[in-house]
Amino acid sequence: MKNKTAEQKLFGNTCVNNHRLMIGGCVASELAKQYGTPLYVFDIDYAAGVARAYADILKREYPSSTVCYASKAFCCTAIYKMLSPLGLGADVVSGGELYTALKGGMDPAKIYFHGNNKTESEIQFALESGVGCFVVDSARELELIEKHATRVQNVLVRVNPGVEAHTHRFIQTTTPDSKFGFSIADGTAESVILSVEKHKNIHFAGIACHIGSQIFEQQSFEIAIDKMTDFIVRLNSLGVNVEMIDLGGGFGVHYIAEDKPLTPEQYMTNSAKYLLKAVNERNITPPHLIVEPGRSIVGEAGITLYSVGAIKTIKSLKTYAAVDGGMFDNPRVSLYDAQYTAVVADKADEKGTHEYSIAGKCCESGDILIDGITLPELHSGDVLAVFTTGAYHYSMASNYNRNAVPPVVAVKNGQSAYMVKPQTYEDIARNDVIPEFLEVKQ
Ligand code: LLP
Questions:
Q1: What gap in Å lies between CA 168 and CA 327, rounded to an integer?
Q2: Is residue 7 pLDDT above 50, yes or no?
Q3: Which one of 210, 228, 398 would you pick to mutate in the ligand 1 pocket, going by the greatest count of ligand atoms within 8 A of its CB?
């Protein structure tokens, strides 16, 4: 994807105009000048377009359905303001995500509360907020919902259908030894579902799974649908009605040219058609369908802008170009060996001539953002744009080395504004306290 010619579309809706990288009608290097670097930039229209496509296509193919945005991909109040009017619900996995979704105006009835170890206080908060559904992942959770619910609460039970999707092992979720869900194969899922009946404050509404993330091949989703609908047949035979099926998210996006994701249209059409076929073949009532895309809605909407600082050549080995960000704004490279591509923001269509390793500024040898990329010759002060950083970047950022988490600037039709303001050093030290007894007398 590097060294594209002018007019050519890069990732998401980014493009090149007069050699300069453009996003949401804004010149990337000017955003860097105006807001400083490192900077996350988020293209509102791109994300809204994908979300709308998911919602519209699924409604067309499978009318009884809900698209729930997986908050973990990128969580801030503005995202819910943007997604709610499009009819999307939200998947949240913590009190913090729930709080943010509510603050952003998400209808609690459209919130699905996931997580393998919800705390008692999170469960109470979710019940008080009136979340639509808990996705239960432990027997303890059932007990806690029963204890605190003041009216009947809908729950889905997270099951493990045992599908090994082709993706990094850390983002696979239905291997036999996964911490998520109850195994269908060993009978645990069935006995947990049967146990729901004894809770008078809980209504079993259906089953949920999520087979992994950054998946390209439709086949993994089809295997999951087969296993989930077989399980519905089994539950029906035990007299258990299944009103809903939640198939999770996991739809892949482009990080590098070799990535070949399907479009939201293909992901939704294929899954909906396959599910309809599966329920017809098994002669079961079509359940309400929930899908939970995260990465594919926000991933390619985001880029990160960095300034190049130190450039250092290790003779006959490699040249490092260090930027003012690193693993604190993008931990995905160190965690998953994730690969990215980048351009020099003002030479976005210029042919690469020099090989670089793009290093971060953290005190870790492993803090490398791109290990080997051909770019035009870099100079200190150049703005480098890394693509596809809208998902699992801001949401996974940290203050490691007490670096500030970069702000997020939204762009749309040539306008720009903060979605998340910059963190100050004062913000970083805000919760630090010096205990009175700390002072050690000499
Ligand atoms: N639903 C459930 C229950 C999930 O666990 C996830 C992601 C999703 C939906 C959304 O999946 P998506 O459409 O975004 O692939 N931090 C990792 C990804 C972890 C995903 C965890 N669960 C990364 O940066 O690649």
A1: 19
A2: no
A3: 210
Does the structure show a pLDDT above 80 at 324? yes
pLDDT at 92 over 60: yes
Look up the pTM and report it.
0.95
Distances in Å between the Cα of 206 and the Cα atoms of 61, 87, 157, 264 are 21, 21, 6, 25
- Say how many Å lie between the CA of residue 19 and the centre of ligand 1: 35
Assess whether pLDDT exceeds 50 at residue 4.
no
- Where b means 16+ CB within 10 Å and e means fewer, 60-90 reads ebbeebbbbbbbbbbbbbbbbebbbebebbb
Instruction: Give the position of tokens 């450039």.
Output: 311
Q: Which of 15, 76, 209, 363 is catalytic?
A: 363
- Distance in Å, CA 215 to ligand 1 centroid: 10
Length of the chain (residues): 442
Query: Catalytic: 68?
Result: no
- Provide the mean pLDDT of the chain: 95
Query: Given ligand 1 and candidates 159, 213, 215, which is best to mutate, with the most ligand atoms within 8 Å of its CB?
Result: 213
pLDDT in the model for residue 177: 87
